[in-house]
Amino acid sequence: MSPARRKPAEGDNLIDFDPAALRADPAVRALIGQEERLKQEARLSRRQREKVIKERRKIRERREQHTCYDIPPQLRQYIKTLAEELRLPASQIAALALLRFARDWQAGTIDLAPYKRPSRSPKYDWNLELDPAEWGV
Amino acid sequence: MIILAVVNQKGGVGKTTTAVTLAHGLAQRDYHTLLIDLDAQGNVADCLGLETGNDLYRLLFPGMALPLAQGVTPSGRPRLDVVRSDRTTTQLKIALGAADMREYVLDDLLKDASYDVVILDCAPSMDVLHTAAMVAAHYILIPTRLDQLAVKGVRDVLTTLQGLSRISTCQLGAIIPTFYDRQTNESLLQLKHLARHFKEQVWPPIPQDVHCRESTRYGKTLWEYAPQARALLGYTHTRGQSVGGYIQMVDRVEEVLLR
Ligand SMILES: Nc1ncnc2c1ncn2[C@@H]1O[C@H](COP(=O)(O)OP(=O)(O)OP(=O)(O)O)[C@@H](O)[C@H]1O
Ligand SMILES: [Mg+2]
């Protein structure tokens, strides 16, 4: 906001230190930040630059693979412990588990009926109710 | 009604391009807008594809001035009128030089105007109309290129403004970096320097873009000639947000100056 726009403080003797007045326009800040990063990269040696670019690409690619599901905490803990035991990334165990599920589902060897309960949510027709006794596996 | 003067005593910094793009941009956003050309070069008419004319002379010539409504020219765009200028403006300035209260000619002209916004496109010189614009305006917008000499022009404008403080309540609205070139270090350096001093009064820069010159050649505004032009859209930042460009400038004018 331009200082010209700010109404003078009225009725009290306190000076108005608007913190916004101390900062640049957000878009200007964004542009300067971005350009400085690019300039910094340009200053790196070719090998360093390649590394930075590769890392950035890796992060970007990983973003595609990133997802978020709600999982009962005991089950989550179990996968985590298993991953540690097997010295494997937990994500890959989860991916394998989902893959196995998808195969079984396609083969028709999985029956959801015992778990299905009608949902009251407008978004879903059903919920799957897992037996808490099974969470810890 | 808000009056904005686009000023920089330095030539070729994008004053007219900024004034025309802003005026048409605001008209498109439903503001009833008047654009006044104060420069004998008559560039505003060129930019809008109009014949040049002596509207300004007829509106301001001492002793025989017309009322505003009889002197404006429709731009052919909804809600946008213009006061054109041509070489007669030179004679006008000489005549005004001898007139009483000459600093107030624009203030008087616009006293009863019924526009939402009036934009004054100033000439790159320090003359009587320049002073009159700074007296009439609520805010000045200073386009500047991002090189050392041009930035000196910003300082000159602010000094002039200070010198007028006894007769003018005009304030700095914003500094608008123009001809922004991402390739050069100088652009970035000057932008940082300006932002450090003037903080949020430095608005996002307008990219250098050949569409600016081309659109003038065809007598069209950027909105008409090249709606996808970089000078309008700015640069794409992360997550599809854009920074800079005239669209963002019109946003800022609306948010900051026209509340
Ligand atoms: N962002 C830009 N990128 C490239 N060219 C531009 C840009 N802005 C303006 N121009 C071109 O630069 C030239 C000068 O711009 P403009 O006439 O707007 O400046 P000015 O400050 O009004 O000049 P003067 O001081 O002579 O009145 C014009 O040909 C215009 O089309
Ligand atoms: Mg001009």
List keywords for this structure.
heterodimer; A: 137 residues; mainly alpha; 2 domains; two-stranded antiparallel ribbon; 5 helices; 4% strand; elongated; disordered N terminus; B: 259 residues; alpha/beta; Rossmann fold; 7-stranded mixed β-sheet; two-stranded antiparallel sheet; 9 strands; globular; binds adenosine-5'-triphosphate; binds magnesium ion
Provide a descriptive summary of the structure in words.
The complex is a heterodimer of chains A (137) and B (259). With 137 residues, chain A is mainly alpha-helical. Chain A folds into 2 domains: 19-65; 73-135, no CATH class. Chain A has 5 helices and 2 strands, in the order ααααββα. Chain A has a two-stranded antiparallel sheet. In chain A, strand 1 and strand 2 (126-128) form a beta hairpin. Chain B is α/β, with parallel strands linked by helices and 259 residues long. Chain B has a single domain (2-257), classed as Rossmann fold (3-Layer(aba) Sandwich). In chain B, 43% of the residues lie in helices and 17% in strands. Chain B has helices at residues 15-28, 43-48, 55-60, 68-71, 88-97, 105-109, 128-136, 148-163, 185-198, 210-217, 222-225, 230-233, 246-257; strands at residues 2-6, 33-37, 73-77, 80-83, 117-121, 139-145, 171-178, 235-236, 242-243. In chain B, the strands form 2 sheets. Chain B has a 7-stranded mixed sheet with strand order 3-4-2-5-1-6-7, sandwiched between helices. In chain B, strands 8-9 form a two-stranded antiparallel ribbon. The longest helix of chain B is centred in the middle third of the chain and has 16 residues, at 148-163. The termini of chain B are close together. The A-B interface holds A 1-5, 20-25, 27-32, 34-36, 39 and B 139, 171-174, 182, 185, 188, 191-192, 195-196, 199-205, 235, 237-238, 241, 243-244, 248, 252, 255-257, 259. The site of adenosine-5'-triphosphate has 19 residues of chain B, from helix 1 and helix 10.
